[in-house]
């Protein structure tokens, strides 16, 4: 294979193959790396999005639980409850229940095995609250809010949790305030969450049991026990992972609530982000194809620039090897300063050294041949005159006739030369016009490129203004965020004040009931203000992130504009080179045009002279017939001279035949 490549391919083909390989192979490697990086980047973006959604779900859950916890905590601190005022205790429980639609039951159990529950419900005979898991768990974490594992309510089938807190009554005995809370609101929020086109969100307990899932059959399934990816989620608590489920590859982000221990999951199937990745692959392959085509075109151009001068040099050496020393090495190669120029100079010197030797040898051989021919002719004529003077005269006439025919052929050849010269004259006229048109177009192109530079500079200045304005926008968004934090703090403080007001109103009894309602409404408004502030804060964070991305993109576009500006300036330099080349070649074309015009005029004079010579030759042929036998008596004395002259002539012709192979 190596031998075939080295010996069977022309130099130009080798250069093209090598250049294409050196151009396309790096492009292929770069394309492969780019596709791999694109896939990794898309997967990273998807996993980041999924994890962000999981964090948002955890924040929502924590907010929900904190609200219920605050209500239970307020019960444990209510003076009427602590003082064991039954009527007022039931009123407190009723207010808490009616303030939150997600609360199913609110109740208090104490060490005396008493239980106060709202709404009232029938309990089994001998019901002992102190034996219930929620009571024991709260008692073990006395003074702290505890949350039970989610369970499915037997009556409604809903997922429910119990939020409880142990506290001391006025008589020093232990009691536990608790609320059974439906997870319908959390389920609705999570199941309505879309991750991409087909992705979804779910919620697990700390040990991996699903409590919220868009597919009802999956609820209460422990994925940590059934699937490896579930075990990974439970062990790591937060992060992201790739896994396969239901015959489909997926990416999930997950986050654990530090308040409940629950784990929120956001998952997206690979098919959702594969479209974006496939577009990236198509764009990359199109770019690779363009690079390949450009590589072939540039390879052909460069290979031609390198190989063509060498091929011309080889062709010229072959001409010299065949004995033709009449040509000259082109000036365009002699003026080069690279290896090709040195090769052309060496060939030129070789020809210059050999040409004088051949010219001198050829001249000497021609002289010898002429003298030998003259001697032989004289001897033959003298010898022939002894036999037949008429025959000699006839031969002279025949020679004159042949000379006249040769002159007619010369006249015909000059006619052909005339036609060729006229074609050359006309073509040079076209070349002259094309050169002038090229100069005009190059000047026009340079002017348009100057206008393009002005436009690109304007675009660059506009982008700089855009980047500056985006920075100002980002600062303004930050200031709005600070104001929202203040509003959020005010809302939280208002919530606490409303809660205290409700407690004071409760103490006031019926007289303070209207005030309690107002305080409760204020608390609700404060809570809504806090939630709205958090949503606005999240939106501001998104705006800040998108603003940063726009700034980054604007800076990249600005860099591209600068690159375009540099490319256009390089193009203008190329146009300047074209103008210089056209300006340099125009006088040469004009001079050549003038010389050809002079040659066309000179050929008419040559043609006239040849025609005159032809007429004289014809007259000579006629006169030769009148010559009589004047050399018969010389025949005997010149026979020996004729034989010797013939031998010399044969030797001279053999030498002349060898020398005729060389043209100088």
TrEMBL record:
GO cellular component: plasma membrane
GO biological process, one term: signal transduction
InterPro entries: dCache_1, HAMP_dom, MCPsignal_dom, Sensor-like_sf
Primary location group: membrane
Residue ranges the record marks as coiled coil: 551-578
Localization, UniProt: Cell membrane
Domain of life: Bacteria
Record's keyword annotation contains Oxidoreductase: no
Transmembrane segments: 281-303
Domain called HAMP: residue spans: 304-359
Swiss-Prot/TrEMBL keywords: Cell membrane, Chemotaxis, Coiled coil, Membrane, Transducer, Transmembrane, Transmembrane helix
Membrane topology annotation: Multi-pass membrane protein
Keyword Membrane: yes
All copies of domain Methyl-accepting transducer, residue ranges: 378-635
Xref: PANTHER family: LYSOZYME-LIKE PROTEIN-RELATED, METHYL-ACCEPTING CHEMOTAXIS PROTEIN MCPB
Family recorded in the similarity comment: Belongs to the methyl-accepting chemotaxis (MCP) protein family.
Stated name of the protein: Methyl-accepting chemotaxis protein
Organism: Caldanaerobacter subterraneus
């Amino acid at each position: 294979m190596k031998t075939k490549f080295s010996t069977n391919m022309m130099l130009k083909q080798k250069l093209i193959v090598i250049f294409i390989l050196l151009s396309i192979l790096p492009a292929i490697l770069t394309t492969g790396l780019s596709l791999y990086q694109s896939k990794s980047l898309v997967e990273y973006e998807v996993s980041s999005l999924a994890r962000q959604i999981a964090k948002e779900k955890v924040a929502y859950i924590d907010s929900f639980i904190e609200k219920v916890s605050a209500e239970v905590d307020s019960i444990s601190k209510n003076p009427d409850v602590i003082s064991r005022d039954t009527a007022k205790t039931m009123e407190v429980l009723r207010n808490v229940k009616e303030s939150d639609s997600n609360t199913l039951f609110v109740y208090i159990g104490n060490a005396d095995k008493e239980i106060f529950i709202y709404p009232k419900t029938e309990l089994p005979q001998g019901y002992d609250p102190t034996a219930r898991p929620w009571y024991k768990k709260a008692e073990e974490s006395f003074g702290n809010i505890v949350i039970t594992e989610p369970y499915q309510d037997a009556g409604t089938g809903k997922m429910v949790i119990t939020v409880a807190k142990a506290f001391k009554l006025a008589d020093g005995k232990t009691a536990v305030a608790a609320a059974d809370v439906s997870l319908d609101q959390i389920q609705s929020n999570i199941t309505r969450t879309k991750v991409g086109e087909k992705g979804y969100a779910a919620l697990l307990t700390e040990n991996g049991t699903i409590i919220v899932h868009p597919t009802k059959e999956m609820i209460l399934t422990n994925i940590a026990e059934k699937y490896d990816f579930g075990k990974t989620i439970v062990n790591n608590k937060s992060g992201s992972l790739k896994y396969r489920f239901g015959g489909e590859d997926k990416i999930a982000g997950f986050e654990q609530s530090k308040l409940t221990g629950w784990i929120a999951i956001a998952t997206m199937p690979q098919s959702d982000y594969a479209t974006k990745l496939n577009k990236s692959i198509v764009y990359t392959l199109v770019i690779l194809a363009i690079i390949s085509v450009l590589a072939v075109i540039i390879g052909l151009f460069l290979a031609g620039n390198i190989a063509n001068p060498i091929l011309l040099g080889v062709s010229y050496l072959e001409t010299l090897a065949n004995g033709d020393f009449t040509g000259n090495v082109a000036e365009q190669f002699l003026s080069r300063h690279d290896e090709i120029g040195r090769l052309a100079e060496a060939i030129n010197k070789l020809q210059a050294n050999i040409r004088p030797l051949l010219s001198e040898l050829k001249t000497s051989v021609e002289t010898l041949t002429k003298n030998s021919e003259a001697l032989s002719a004289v001897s033959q004529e003298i010898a022939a005159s002894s036999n037949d003077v008429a025959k000699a005269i006839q031969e002279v006439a025949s020679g004159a006739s042949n000379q006249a025919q040769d002159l007619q052929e010369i006249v015909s050849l000059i006619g052909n030369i005339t036609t060729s010269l006229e074609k050359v004259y006309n073509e040079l006229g076209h070349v002259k016009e094309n050169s002038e048109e090229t100069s005009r177009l190059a000047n026009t192109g340079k002017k348009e490129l100057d206008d393009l530079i002005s436009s690109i500079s304007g675009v660059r200045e506009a982008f700089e203004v855009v980047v500056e304005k985006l920075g100002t926008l980002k600062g303004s968004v930050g200031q709005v965020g600070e104001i929202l934090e203040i509003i959020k703090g005010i809302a939280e403080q208002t919530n606490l004040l409303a809660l205290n007001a409700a407690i004071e109103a409760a103490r006031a009894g019926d007289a303070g009931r209207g005030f309690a309602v107002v305080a409760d409404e204020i608390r609700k408004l404060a809570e809504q203000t806090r939630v709205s502030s958090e949503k606005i804060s999240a939106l501001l964070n998104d705006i800040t992130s998108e603003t940063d991305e726009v700034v980054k993109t604007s800076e990249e576009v600005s860099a591209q504009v600068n690159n375009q500006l540099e490319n256009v300036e390089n193009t203008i330099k190329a146009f300047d080179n074209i103008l210089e080349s056209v300006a340099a070649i125009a006088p040469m074309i004009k001079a050549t045009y003038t010389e050809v015009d002079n040659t066309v005029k000179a050929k008419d004079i040559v043609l006239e002279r040849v025609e005159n010579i032809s007429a004289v030759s014809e007259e000579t042929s006629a006169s030769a017939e009148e010559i009589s036998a004047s050399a018969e008596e010389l025949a005997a004395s010149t026979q020996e001279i004729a034989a010797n002259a013939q031998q010399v002539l044969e030797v001279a012709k053999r030498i002349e035949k060898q020398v005729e192979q060389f043209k100088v």
